[in-house]
TrEMBL record, chain A:
The keyword S-adenosyl-L-methionine does not apply. Keywords: Periplasm, Signal, Sugar transport, Transport. This is ABC-type sugar transport system, periplasmic component. Its main location: periplasm. GO terms for cellular component: periplasmic space.
UniProtKB/TrEMBL annotation, chain B:
Pfam families: BPD_transp_1 (PF00528). This is ABC-type sugar transport system, permease component. It is found in: Cell membrane. InterPro entries: ABC_transporter_permease, MetI-like, MetI-like_sf.
Amino acid sequence: MSLRNALFAASALALVSTAAQAETITIATVNNGDMIRMQGLTDDFTTKTGHTVEWVTLEENVLRQRVTTDITTKGGQFDILTIGMYETPIWGANGWLIPLDDLSEDYDVDDILPAMAGGLSHDGTLYAAPFYGESSMIMYRTDLMEKAGMEMPEAPTWQFIREAAAAMTDRDNDINGICLRGKAGWGEGGAFITAMSNSFGARWFDMDWNAQFDTKPWADTLNFYVGMMNESGPAGYATNGFNENLSLFQQGKCGMWIDATVAASFVTNPDDSTVADSVGFALAPDTGLGKRSNWLWAWALAIPAGTAKEAAAKQFIEWATSKDYIELVAEKEGWANVPPGARTSLYENPNYQAVPFAKMTLESILSADPNNSTVEPSPYVGIQFAAIPEFAGIATEVSQEFSAVYAGQQTVEEALEKAQAITNDAMEAAGYR
Amino acid sequence: MATQHSRSAARFMMAPAVILLLGWMLVPLVMTLWFSFRRFLPNRPDIVPGWVGFDNYVRFVTSSAFWPSVQTTLIIVGGALLITIVLGVLLAMLLDQPMWGQGVVRILVIAPFFVMPTVSALVWKNIFMDPVNGLFSHLWRAFGAEPVVWLSDAPLFSIILIVSWQWLPFATLILLTAIQSLDSEQLEASEMDGAPPLSRFFYIILPHLSRAITIVILIQTIFLLSIFAEIFVTTGGAFGTRTLTYLIFQRVLESQNVGLGSAGGVYAIILANIIAIFLMRIVGKNLDA
């Protein structure tokens, strides 16, 4: 065989083997801005690895149901799932996810923020890589605060927030002192009120898995929330979730908003927000009991056990949650739009430190501890949720009772009584009590 | 006339379609029945699935959420039927009149039927009923009134309104077709005999429409019993808007309790059949005429 023929054969062989390795992976993801941006940048992944990607993009609630059904029935529709901190430890414990304990050295797994890695692990093994992470914090209008003659401390109390909200409220000009989630759903109003209740000393369960809605801290939490929202909240707050409040804040109709730290980039973006140049940030409030009312969450990528494309899926996860990806987004869209909250190195980067909300986001994330979220000891992991499979169902029903209070359809006592019964019934049926 | 041979050939050729359709209905039905007698919690692999007899049925029907959800379902179905039939008759009579731009008006009236339930619920929620930015709130304020927080202050009425808006075109279309088949000589004769408009409506038009109204009631009831998207998008089952379908969805998908939810599914089938038999007995007689 001549040298020319040998080279030709070798090249052909190389091409064939590359083609054989190139896979098409199917990824289920949520329709959040950061994920949509990731889809737009997929070409970079395909160029680097030869693998192609098929996206199934769904609204958050629908995504949760689709991936949960797929994994519990071993449907095998997806090679990568976008899941959160609630599902990851439960599914990891069930053996439904492939452990991410052999990621490459370049990936630098130790750079992942400890709070994120902890929340996405089971028994110390990482089961999902954080695409972005968040806590919650106060976003407030600096101009309205000044007009009210008040100054926001870096770590305010709930009492201060209530007073500031009342001072900023201007019903004639359609300005509400504070906008908070009230919408039914465990991931909507349920998440907010649970995080808030932690700072009032409440918890979902005692150490024997008995519901705790008949205790004073829960009554205090709900009475305070309803009182403050009736004084200074927007009309119809019982149906407001993240998106509704974001829109109100961007339109200049809220003095304060306590919600996910990722919202900071939306409210400070002059293209979308009419108040972009007058937004300040502070830690979520407390009541002096040692717990603040901020939560911890990550949207993360995980590989379902049983996929035939594990290697390609791992390559994608490494690409999408790497330092290089962050640089890629920064280069194309600016530092304010990179996926936040996942890596320590991002917060050490001087370019990112110049972003106005970077410092407060990091402080909020660092102050959240899902393993120790309540004042009294509790048997569950999680801040705005309890990481047990039954929680989503129970908390959705409980939050529906709370929303009925916000709408003035029942009293706090009635709602708490029902919540107690719903929770204890479900826990009994599930064999916890 | 069909011969023995051609009848056999017809049966043979129809068999695949019949088997497919039977399977289409039977497989889910049998699976629902099967699961309803089992403890099946997909999220809890530590709990071994097993037979539980009628436990799921007892738990579903004794849960505090069951009767309120049946009641809500019936209120929504009844409310939407009432609105769509009354307005449907009126609209059908209006559209039957010769008028300028009749074609365009008819298309506009039936347009909501082509909008997906999820989209229409979102449009109503965000564009019309939003208490801050919604069209209704601006209207209310223009007249100096406090805006109504529709989805939490009048949740059932709001959902009935959204559903009725979607189903009105269907009722109108069926009723319009029926009105157009009314013999105009009959109406003219009664007019010449001096019958006032209201008498003409109650003694001639309404009896003529009774078959069409029956069809509207039967078809709409079947679809309205399983209404889901409008509730999912607007209230998420809060404020007393949890229908039986929504409760089953919560049990199966949110609580991941397939056994309990399946028992609920069987109850839903029974409820739908009771209502169907009831309707057939009361109003179905019209169809025989």
